Amino acid sequence: MKGKSLYIFSADCKDLIIPQYYKSRRRVKTGRSMLNKRKEYNLRRFVAALDFSLDQIRLREIYERVVGGTDFSFKLGRKQYTTHAINVTFKYAVREFNKEYGNVYVKLGCFPGDLRYEECVALVDGELAGIVLNTPAKLREDFLLPDCFAYVDGMYKMVKQPKVVVSTAEARKRLYKKGFWCDGVHYVRWKRSAGSARVGKCLFLNEALYPEMHRWEMCGLDVKDGDPIDLAALESYISLTSSSIIDVLDLAPENILVIDDYESVFDDEVVSVEEVNGKLTAERKVCTIHNSIWDGQGLIDVSAMGQYADKGMVLLRNQFFKCCCFNCNLQDWFRDNGITEIGQLNGRTKAKQIEDIKLVTTPSSIKFLKFGTLDEWLAHIAPEFGVVKYDKKTHFFDGRMVQVHYQLLNTLQMTPDEVAAFMEPTFDYMAKLRSDPAVLRHHIKYPIEDEDSITPAQSKNDVVYKMLGINDRFADTKLYYDFRADILKSFTKNTKLGHVLVNGNYSVLCGNPIEMLQAAIGKFDGTSQIGVGNLHSIRFDYGQKLLGSRSPHVSMGNVFLVNNAENPEIDRYMNPTTEIVYLNSIGESVLDRLSGCDFDSDTIMITNDGHLIASAEKHYGDFPVAAYNVVAKKISRHYTQEQKCDLDIKTSRNLIGEIVNTASEINSLIWDELYHGATLSDVESMYEDACLLNVMSNIEIDKAKKEFNVDTRKELTALEQKYRRINDGRKVEPNFFAAKDRGKGYYDPAKKEYRKHDTTMDYLQTAVNSFRMHQSRGLKPDRFLPFSDIVTDDEYNHRNIWKPKIERAVTLVRQSRDEIKSIYMAESYDEEERASLAGLRRQDCVDYVGDIVMSRNTMIYFLKHLEKDELSDIRRSVFNTLFGYPNSAFFELIRQSKEPIPNLIEDPDGDVELFGIRYRKTCETPENT
């Protein structure tokens, strides 16, 4: 059972409030429109998605029952859309004059379609109703120009922002309370996911569908308007069914056994971060740690895994339910331990016989139990559980390599020589990417298809991969040279951010699984079966020391060193994969060390890289774990739209990025001070501040479902000011921040001094820059091979071509490129919306150009024509477009030009080595070797 995401209309609160000020009641009830002037859906605004989810499945069913028909969604091109849900953002206030489009501003209350412009001005009853800015016009003197505009240099300009009439907070209150109209349909507030809440977004639903949909998502809870409720938790948990799913698994209520959660309680010396009178404090001391060792975890019998029986876990969602279910031989465990009757189990279940039990979980996965009973939940849940994801390999070297990141590297103390040794395999790889097309092809490889059946390329990487798989002369073309330059530029940019490949992967954390099985039959006595300081992974050799890191990785206390221990019982009763690690959290502060992790599908970056482990060992005992001892406060909230609004406003201020940046600066200062002779006691207060930030990052993640008596913005601002360094009017930051700022568009050497510190990340910048300078000599060849020269053209006849088709294709590509540029320059879209809309526009161009039927002669001429200087600006765009659609003439030329080409095949005796893995070159595909 697989479905597609539906694209939905996205609008800012400003554009939904403005129609409420129209003077005509009819226009107020029409509201905002999803249509353009041609009365077609304005697909430029359908940039949000209603994921394929349990919610989407249920909405379709409710629509068919309530409205009738099967037209809940519609298809245009390759995309599916629906108008019954709308994504609302809260970025802009409603002002006295508001931007309608481009440079056009309309007075609040005036209907844009009624306005007639003369010399860039539209009047209603002698007053300004609309104005076009930054466009040449004659000065009109028949109206009073508001003080927010001025006539300057022959055009009207905005000299200050128009007065705010409705703030974004007030707009949110209005929309939450009364909803809004759109194309004559009334929409009401529906829900927001935890991710959307952190950026202030919220979904609104066609009011006709809301009552039944809300009844279903509440799973039998009868919460009336005004009732006291833990609103933060409720709002978070009803959104679980909106998570994107890939499939469903059938589990009946009687298949579930619920055992008690277990807390391991022990004392440990940590940096305890606590809240005192609304402020955070950090103090190194011995305190009591409480680890919930199965938080969010379940064990699912392999027989219930369906097509995922070869996976190590599936993350399941249902109403008020989120559980990472790890593949195990549950029935074997019962059989081996003589469990034959339900009465022998240590838990609650509706099962009548042992064979019915397919899933063991705890109350921590059943969020309904915060509001109701287990029997009520089991009576209302649907038997279809959504599969959100399963364990997967990384994208690097068939899952054997993983990228580390600057957060980890900046918490390790390495010398310049140690950084150079650590980077050597990466620099060797970059050199081979530059010199060997077979290595570059391996770098961007896609699953190898039947090479005789060339299929449409879906991306720039795929284009080059397929071309290198057809004809190795392609590596002599300017197209290849430019692509390789882009690959190396991107690789270098990533490397300077600390994204360095090492042996390892991202593995899903499973907590004390044998102990969980023991608890299910009443035999768990609190003893760790894995053992303190150990984990179990079949990805690495037993007895190896491993290093782990989980995001966000904020301070030195997040570095995790652990022994990989053999464990026959886990191998017998669990079904491990290389992407699962079985972790112990009994009697050790591992949950706090791994950034407040739990077991609801959290992953850990894990590696056996010797350079990283040696660096971690230097100070592993010197920086205690930051213990998250800040308790969520009990806030007396009621189930009202006003309270939902207040909660969402507070939740939408997300600070994780700023927290991580501030911590990175403090960590750089700590290492720099230690390098220049400071002692550990000298930097202890700085480390305590890093620990404050460590816990603040967890608070920011948790605040979508909990509320705290801490103002994280105030706490963060105080730390930013404390560590703010100014030199000649410029803010001093670590040197590696320059690479980070360039990637996000914040690079500003006029306002920032990027100063080198004696830290791992700044040493890495120096090493990368030195390598680039060494490699940049003699890169560009004297002459490139024209692409048309690698195409077979023995029968080419230049008289039998149709140039208008070529001109049309070139025009379409230029228009598409210009539109995509304007999308990325528009302020009205966020990053996610820009990417979505640009992708749609790019696909439209591929479809349009692909539908242009060209003869073989016209196509050959087109390829020759592309090499002219006047088309250099769109050469790659046209090439990618042609390769992105099954254009018969283009692909026929490619097929006829096919030649044997070399692949890299893994071979321990091969002469090409990449990150310690040996390959040989062959013209055979892996399937034929």
In a few lines, what is going on in this structure?
The protein is α+β, with helices and mostly antiparallel strands.
Molecular structure report:
Helix content is 33%, strand content 22%. The chain is an alpha+beta fold. Among the domains are: 6-92 and 167-217, no CATH class; 97-162, no CATH class; 788-898, no CATH class. The strands form ten sheets. The protein has an eight-stranded mixed sheet with strand order 17-26-22-23-21-25-18-24, with helices on one face. Strands 1, 2, 3, 4, 13, 14 and 15 form a seven-stranded mixed sheet that branches. A hairpin with a 2-residue loop joins strand 10 and strand 11 (155-158). Helix 4 (168-178) packs antiparallel against helix 19 and helix 20 (656-675) runs antiparallel to helix 21. The relative contact order is 0.10.
List the helices and strands and how they pair.
Elements: E1 6-12, H1 13-17, H2 25-30, E2 48-50, H3 54-66, E3 74-76, E4 79-89, E5 94-95, E6 97-101, E7 104-107, E8 121-124, E9 127-132, E10 149-152, E11 155-158, E12 164-166, H4 168-178, E13 180-182, E14 185-191, H5 194-198, E15 202-206, H6 210-217, E16 228-229, H7 231-237, E17 247-250, E18 256-258, E19 263-276, E20 279-292, E21 297-301, E22 313-318, E23 321-328, H8 330-336, E24 348-349, E25 359-361, H9 374-380, E26 384-390, E27 401-403, H10 406-409, H11 416-435, H12 437-443, H13 460-468, H14 478-496, E28 501-511, H15 513-520, E29 534-536, E30 545-549, E31 560-564, H16 568-573, E32 580-583, H17 590-593, E33 603-607, H18 610-618, E34 626-628, E35 637-638, H19 641-651, H20 656-675, H21 684-702, H22 712-722, E36 726-727, E37 730-734, H23 737-744, E38 752-755, H24 760-775, H25 803-825, H26 831-850, H27 856-865, H28 875-883, H29 888-896, E39 903-906, E40 912-914, E41 917-922
Parallel strand pairs: 1-4, 18-25, 19-34, 21-23, 28-32, 29-31, 37-38
Antiparallel strand pairs: 1-2, 3-4, 4-15, 5-12, 6-7, 7-9, 8-9, 10-11, 13-14, 14-15, 16-35, 17-26, 18-24, 19-20, 21-25, 22-23, 22-26, 27-28, 28-33, 29-32, 30-31, 30-33, 36-37, 39-41, 40-41
